[in-house]
Inverse folding.
């Protein structure tokens, strides 16, 4: 069974805002919801220039599909 209970972490302790839905020893997974936004590298326009090529016959029909044409 999976259940979610809100709470908060402060000074090394986790305090739940509501009663846990289990009454016996149970494994838990704690996820911390921080408000810190991940640092993303800035996108550099043109960074892939010269690294990607498109063949001249890119728009030509594929031989594998000739029977459907």
């Amino acid at each position: 069974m999976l259940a979610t209970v809100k709470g908060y972490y402060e000074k090394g302790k986790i305090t739940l805002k509501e009663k846990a839905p289990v009454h016996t020893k149970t494994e838990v997974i704690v996820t911390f919801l921080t408000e810190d936004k991940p640092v993303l590298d800035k996108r550099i326009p043109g960074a892939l220039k010269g690294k990607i090529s498109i063949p001249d016959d890119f728009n030509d029909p594929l031989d594998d599909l000739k029977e459907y044409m």
About this structure: Residues 1-34 form one domain. The chain has no helices and two strands.
